[in-house]
Structure formats: C-alpha cells, structure tokens
Amino acid sequence: MIEENRRVLLGMSGGTDSSVAAMRLLEAGYEVTGITFRFYELNDSTEYLEDARSLAERLGIRHITYDARDVFRKQIIEYFVQEYMEGRTPVPCTLCNNYLKWPLLAKVADEMGVFYIATGHYVQKVKLEDTYYITYAADPDKDQSFFLWGLKQDILRRILLPMGNITKVEARVWAAERGFQKVATKKDSIGVCFCPMDYRSFLKNWLVRNGQLRSENVSCWSENVSHWSGNVSCWSEMVRRGRFVDEKGNFMGWHEGYPFYTIGQRRGLGIHLNRPVFVKEIYPEKNEVVLSSLSALEKTEMQLKDWNLVNPQKTLGYNDVIVKIRYRKQENHCTVTVTPDNLLHVQLHEPLTAIAAGQAAAFYRDGLLLGGGIIVNAR
After folding, report:
1. Given the residues 193, 195, 220, 234, the one annotated as active site
2. Domains, the chain, with CATH or none
3. For 198-257, what is each residue's pLDDT tens digit?
4. Is 193 a catalytic residue?
5. Does the structure show a pLDDT above 60 at 31?
6. Least buried of 145, 179, 282, 307, by fewest C-beta within 10 Å?
7. Three-class HEC string of the chain
C-alpha cells in the first residue's frame, strides 16, 4: 500500500472544471500530475487533449496521456448498445465513473507511487467514524454525487475533490482572475460524451456501421461515430418497424424500432392522439412498445442488482433514506432491505413514475451518499 504523500494524479479532460481543479490543487501545495484518458473522441477531435497539454505546460506540471479507447468501447459503449437492444435504459456515466475512470486513476497512481487521485467533479467528501462518504457539492445545480454511488473505501480514502466547495460561476471567475480566459469561457459538456445530444442517432449509426441495420432503414443518421469492430448479436431482424399498443394490446400506431424508445418517454413518439401518452413497457421479443397514461407508470417498489452500500448500518431498514433514479430527478423517501437472493429491495413511500430496468438508483441520508445499484425491476 502506498504511503500518504502530497502527490496527486488529476484527471484532466481539457475542460473548465478539471483545469481549475489543477490550479486549486497547486495553490493548496500539492505536487500535481495531470493525466488525460483517451476514452472517446467525437468526430476524431483531439482538441481536448491539446487543451489539457497546453494548460499543464503553462502551469508547469507533468502531463501524461492514457489510451483507454479499447476498454471504453468494450465496457461502456457496447454495454450501452446492448442495454437498449434488451429494452433497458443504460447508465453509461455511472458505470464509467465507478468501474472505469476512478479505478483506472487509482491503478496509474499506484504505478507512479502517487497517493491521491482527483478530478473536477462537483462533489465533496467527509469522514465520519473512520468511514469516508461522498456528499453534496456546494453548487446544487452542478452536484454530481449521483454518479459516484459505486465507489468503495479504497478509492474514497484517496480522492481529492477541489471543486466541491465552489460553484461553477466561481470556478470561471477563478480561472479568469488568474489569466486563463480560455478556461474561463469554455462551454459546459452536455449529456453522454459519445452521444451528447441524441442517443437514437448514435444507436442507429452504430448498428449500421456494425452491420446490424441496413442504412436504407435509417431516416436520419450522423457521421459522428468512428468505426469499430466487435462481436455483437445479430439484431437486423429485430430493429424494424413495430407496433405501438395500449395496455390491452390494441394497436395504436407504428414505431420505428423498439430500441429507440425509453420508459416514460412522451416526446418524439411520432404518434398523434387527442391525449398525452407515455411509454410504459418495451417488449424486444415482440418488437412492441406499450403506451399508457402517466398515472399507469407509477411504481411503489423496485429491486436493484450490482449494488454497493458505503455503510449498510446507516442505510438498511431506515424510513428516512432518500432515493434518486436520475441525476436531476426529484428525491423520494424509501426503506431499503436485502432480499434472500441478495438484491436490494426499495420500498417507496410515495409512487414514482418512469422507473426503468437498467437505470441506476442512488441512496442518501443526512446529506451523505450511502450507495446505490442498478434497477432490475419495479412494480
């Protein structure tokens, strides 16, 4: 085990947050090394890489790059596609943070003899009774705690979070006051890094490029995805026009393929009725999408797999635990228990709509992130 020291390995994306994080760590007296992971390069652009290198050089810190594109493709992108093809709703940012980005930071830091690891995440960390917890950021509009429920103590004890106690506005001011105008005015990243605006176009493009969907069946697809090869199931017979049906199975209209819809979706259905309808269920084996009223989507319990609890004694059996199923979704009170088959059972105290298999759920209590898991089912 590496002894604690003043050295820190900082993940640098070239954006405002990680750049300001580097400045704050230096001013706090840490010896900073920047690392930029090459996870995915939209439109083959490496501008982010040059920005990170340029900033590191200007700050006088060492900078290294790590090509993780192959592992990112296998662990994140192919998972993302597979989940939609199974009719589930994936959570790529959650999996990337908990099972790829932070563990990879720790691995490289170990090889370098560096104790601390850091990023530009807007979260904070506290230690209570020898246990480390993630807690909310000072900026509620930027808080990213939801994505970090899978981190365990071996990671939590080593992380530094220099952006957690300031707001995004303050971060931009921080950079501008120190003469880093480009850093101060960079646009915020939006959405998933490999499909920042529209997952449907990405998915269609991926299926076409991997021979799983004929291009003539795609009405609109972008050139944003680089080609890669991989062993994937043949979905060409599954991704085709199918039936929208109501809860009784009555035909309501045609959809363009079940993977292009998510539970709770209302907009972009391409069906016009005299009342609002929402996606309630998705049946890949029948290529059917069930539509219903919003009230029919209400659920009062769910089960989670692949879960992590930072401190089960603070989580299980309490009636004041808060659960969130989306980054910016409202918070609901719940009670969490463990089932005989080692799933987490979440009993909601108020009904919650649009719970989808494959989504993540994160638990909070007294402002502490207590853990989370992946939703298997809800009812």
Report:
1. 193
2. 7-184 (3.40.50.620), 198-238 (no CATH), 240-296 (2.30.30), 298-378 (2.40.30.10)
3. 888 899 888 888 766 544 443 332 232 333 333 344 455 668 899 999 999 999 999 999
4. yes
5. yes
6. 179
7. CCCCCCEEEEECCCCHHHHHHHHHHHHCCCEEEEEEEECCCHHHCCHHHHHHHHHHHHHCCEEEEEECHHHHHHHHHHHHHHHHHCCCCCCHHHHHHHHHHHHHHHHHHHHHCCCEEECCCCCEEEEECCEEEEECCCCCCCCCHHHHCCCCHHHHCCEECCCCCCCHHHHHHHHHHCCCHHHHCCCCCCCECCECCCHHHHHHHHHHHCCCCCHHHCCCCCCCCCCCCCCCCCCCCCCCCEEEECCCCCEEEEECCHHHCCCCCCCCCCCCCCCCCEEEEEECCCCEEEEECHHHHCEEEEEEEEEEECCHHHCECCCCEEEECCCCCCCEEEEEEECCCCCEEEEEEEEECCCCCCCEEEEEECCEEEEEEEEEEEC
